[in-house]
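Protocol step 4 of 6: structure prediction from sequence.
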Amino acid sequence: MEPGLAELTGRELTDPGYCTRVQNFTVGRFGYGSVRFIGETDVRWLDLNQIVKFRRHEIVVYEDETIKPVVGKGLNKAAEVALVLQKTASIEKLKLSAENQEAEFISFDPHKKEWKFSVQHFSRFGLSDDEDDDVMMDDADVDVREQVTMNDSDGSDLDEDRLLTDPRLLSHSLPSHLGLDPVRMKEMRMVMFSTEEEDDDEELDNLNGTFSHHRPLLGSKTVQRSSPLAIRKTPLALLEYNPGGFASSPNGSILLAQQNKGLPLTVTKVQGFKLEIKETPVTKSFSKNIVDAGLLMGIIERQLEVQGLSSSARVMLMHQVFVWELIKVLFSSKESSLDADVAALPLIRRAEFSVLLQESVCHRVQDEISSLSDSKDLQQLFLLLTGRQIDSAVELSASRGDVRLACLLSQAGGSTVNRMDIDRQLGLWKNNSLDFSFIEKDRIRLFELLAGNIHGALGEMNIDWKRFLGLLMWYHLSPASDLTSIFQTYQRLLEDGRAPYPVPVYIDEELVKDGVCWTPGNRFDIAYYLMILHSNEERDFTKSSMLKTLFSAFASTHDPLDHHMIWHQRAVLEAVGTFSSDDLHVLDMGFVSQLLTLGHCHWAIYVVLHMSRCDDYPYLQASVIREIVFQYCETWSAQENQRKFIVELGVPSAWLHEALAVYHAYYGNSFKALEHYLGCAFWQKAHSTFITSVAHSLFMSGKQSEILRLATSMEDHKSEIENWDLGAGIFITFYSLKSSLKEDEDTMSELVSLQDKNDECRKFFSRLKGSLAFWDNRLPIDARTVYAKMAEEISDLLVADSGEGSSTEVKLECFNTIFDSPVPQDLLSSHLQSAISHFTLHLTEAVS
């Protein structure tokens, strides 16, 4: 499918609505052909498995006419079709066939055998059975004549279909090694089992919805093959992640990005995981950490696509993907996701685990094979069997001419009867004192493995624990054994010292250059713990000390401080109900510390929000979040994305304002501290900061409006502020009194007489002196200067009032009020002359 699912997702994120107008949308099936829909196509909600079907020399779009839209809608539109024909065709008859179907012939490539034509709408296009035979006839005659000439034989009694078969495809087949004609054997099979072959084709058509060709093994290297391998119907390993919700789809897999390249991806609607969504503490909102775990999985897969990755980094990423898929295989609910007999569900899970295990060990098998010379084919066969690469082993054996061994290898891991027969034969040879010196030791090892005697086959050979587990499952235990019995058998062998230790991947693959200090048994791989967890599902696993060991950083990485992967895995396991524990706060806090060290305060708070509730410490999450917010204020406040994310997490904004207020107060930025104190409704603290640090600076800068804004914002809460009248209330009174004395036309003043004005000024000066006494040494020199400045301005306005109709005695009282104000003595002297003049006038009036 082009563009692929990943590209569609990325383009939709960057360009919303892109999926409604995809240019030249192309769908194909490997070996059958492709179709390119011309122009813009709306690809939303399209079930390509049901709509587009490729068959032999044929394409069908909307086979079900009931769901077929009108021409021009959906996929019922103009398109260019390319069909891959099985044989060379006649161009003239292809043109005629296209014309009969109201299609327009474009071209035919005889080398690729690709027939291209265009259509204006869709139903069924291609070659009918009669046309198939007729169109192929002419060129087939040419091929027959060419082959007869090349082989210098008569060829008159040869069947045309036989000659049309490519002999190279059968050069290494079993009939050729048995001295039989492989082409004739194929013809006989087609005659005798034609119905079965059609059924196989039908199943392959269904399988094509997920895979267009055989799925490559995880991390495998390219192996040169002498003949192409047939498609194997391997069980599907894991569920495909569904970005539309918490559930996963059952019939696919969380496949690696590298495995999906070139494969048509499908979106299924059946649900897999059933998650119990719980509310998080503090925010009381729903948890989304399970989705984030899935996103992390996607990030890891994308990292595998990066060019130039070191081998150790790639192996580590592959192991992380293996663990994610292992969780899916072991703990997904098969009952709700598969329409199968309940009794078969354990075998389905076993088959999925087998495929996953094959993929995880493939790179090691290929590495060891590449170190061997071509002459050591028996050792190569043994290594291939340790990774259950049976197809490759059979092909290699057949290519070396060892057909009998190839027959045995093809049955490896199958019926226990075959194992018993091989084991009985080995026993007879031993009982009859057969001279084994005439049989290669490596061949005997192969026989021992095929007989199910894995310890006898391995001998002194060192093998990693995953391959040993695979040998145990594939060749020793019954094919009907479930995973629980397999894991428990391995555990018993491990306790008896007869199985390799399941060491972590960084030890097993020797990924750490400096080496790791460890002793056998003190560190196990997380995959092993997951297997034990699966085999102990019915037990009370939460009481086991292994739970803490399972979620130790050492189970995934050599770095004891790296908890990012294990934390997400724990989240998934807990979300699907595998276990429940409130005793893993060490893991949570370890991950929190790791994130804080990296400066990711927002993600640290995210982790804390998903900590399980502890009844002994009900406010644990709130306390930890407040501590993070306060201690790392400088970090998160400097990055807008972190600050926004923390707010979106539901952390109370009052906590953020309080932390910022403390931070700015510590660094002496009183203006910002005051704003944040107001933001967190710390009125008393805001009031103190305003009086002692902010107000005087604003006053001396002439920012009257800013002073009034800050003071009035606290006025509504003055009942919560101690000594409001001796603090910010003074500034509000000052500006109000000043306006009254100026007789501002925009101010409705109740002060009419000079006596009233004098009384109000006296009260104001009294509050100024009270404020100076109350705040005392907490007021800086600049603040005291401001107080004197306010008193001076009010005094000047009071003296400047003519006081028409007022007696001289009232005016003298105004001077008494001024001389009693907190105005410096050097400033009061300017009013002394006026006071003496009024006093003289008063005496004159009194005498007369």
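Step 5 (inspection) to follow. The chain has a mean pLDDT of 75.
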